Amino acid sequence: MTPKPTSPVPPEDYVGLDHERAEGLARDHGWSVVRSLPPGSIITMEYLEGRINFEVTDGTVTRCWLG
Question: Is 12 helix (H, G, I), strand (E, B) or coil?
Answer without folding.
Answer: helix
